[in-house]
Amino acid sequence: MARLRAGGVVDDKADQLRRLIDALARVRAVLPLSRPATLARLSHNCAGNPHHFDLNDAGQGARLVLLVADLLDAPLPDTPAAERALLARVGIVAGSQSQTVLLLNVNADGDGPTDQALRLAHEDQRPVHLTFHDLTAHPPTLSRTQPWLVVENPSVIHEALMRGITTPIVCTSGTLTAIDHALLALAHTSGVPMEYSGDIDTGGRHIAEAVLRRYEVPSREMDEKTRNAAVGAGTLYEGPFAVPPLPAPEAAATGSGTGTGFSGSAIFQEHPIVLDRLLGPDPADPLPLPCSRPTPHPTTETCAPSRARAPASQTNPGQGA
Fold it and tell me: Minimal CA–CA distance to 46: which of 241, 295, 276?
């Protein structure tokens, strides 16, 4: 707040700063987290956008770092690595896992080096990055005993780790690249059953259409029923507010900034409803929907039933979304 005052406020930025202050206040209310969660999930639940507190020039990550430094009475970090170490002290995981294709609990049956790397990671139940060289120079013989869940965002992999999920999950980290196509093509020709789940937005639907057309992979939790359940679940956050918040004119017009977890028509994978349907509910989740957490005061908020879906390994591999 002191830095914001020192920098001054112009009228056309006032509403943007109010939203930032509200988001930071919500972050402060949940820190330190009871168990680690990704920066994307924290941003999503406290600001309605998983990229709001990105640690780059486009995000507000610098303000979040200031908040955590003040909370811990710690010196301000002077390197990107130090920033991430500081956030980790309060349970915020800000490390990127998107440089290569990311796999969790994927097993292999062959004897090559990539098979061995996958088996070791599978035994340890830890994620593993594969490169284009791994898939082309030493293609693994992929196990077909369990279907794959292919997701768009690395934060889902981390959430699966936190929830102790043992079924195979593969992450494309957004737009399909050459390595993603190499892995999906190998899995398709190997007969591995797969489902794809991404953000419910234009980009996510385009990826879903591409993997269905190219590799016969049906989509999962990307239909109108899932979107309506997420919207119907109500606000992602409540307070603390010094005064009742007033949405900016552009937010009122587009539907963004309303706390429902979508900008316009988008529903992000970090939404609690989507995560619970993909991975199964977690009673220890530190960032549940407000109306699902215990509260000492009566509330008029209502939550739509989650109808959580079992992990993919517990469903018929031949069924689609």
Answer: 241
Classify residue 299 by its DSSP letter: -
For the chain, first and last CA: distance in Å?
A: 46
Provide the pairing of β-strand 148-151 with 194-197. Answer: parallel
DSSP for residue 90: T
The pLDDT tens digits of the residues spanning 21-49 come to 999 999 999 999 999 999 999 999 999 99
Q: Is the pTM of this model over 0.70?
A: yes
- The C-alpha atoms of residue 183 and residue 124 are separated, in whole angstroms, by 21
Rounded to a whole number of angstroms, the CA Rg of the chain reads 21
Where does the pLDDT of residue 301 fall: very low under 50, low under 70, confident under 90, or very high at 90 and above?
Answer: very low
**Angle, alpha carbons 228-236-45 (nearest 5°):** 115
From 218-222, 238-242, 298-302, the region with the lowest mean pLDDT? 298-302
Contact (CB, 8 A) for 24 and 63:
yes
Taking each helix axis from N to C terminus, what angle separates 272-279 and 154-162, rounded to the nearest 10 degrees? 60
Q: For residue 232, how many C-alpha atoms fall within 13 Å in the half-sphere facing its CB?
A: 10
Q: How far apart are CA 101 and CA 156, in angstroms?
A: 14
286-290: long-range pairs with CB below 8 Å, 24+: 286/30, 286/33, 286/34, 286/35, 286/37, 286/91, 287/30, 287/33, 287/37, 287/41, 287/42, 287/45, 289/233, 289/234, 289/236, 290/234, 290/235, 290/236, 290/237, 290/238
Q: Which amino acid is at 68?
A: V
DSSP category for residue 93? E
C-beta of residue 149 within 8 angstroms of C-beta of residue 269: no
Q: Concatenate the DSSP letters of all residues of 108-148 into one string.
A: B-S-SHHHHHHHHHHHHT--EEE-HHHHHHS---B--SSPE
Which amino acid is it at 291?
C
Distance between CA atoms of 110 and 321, rounded to whole angstroms?
30
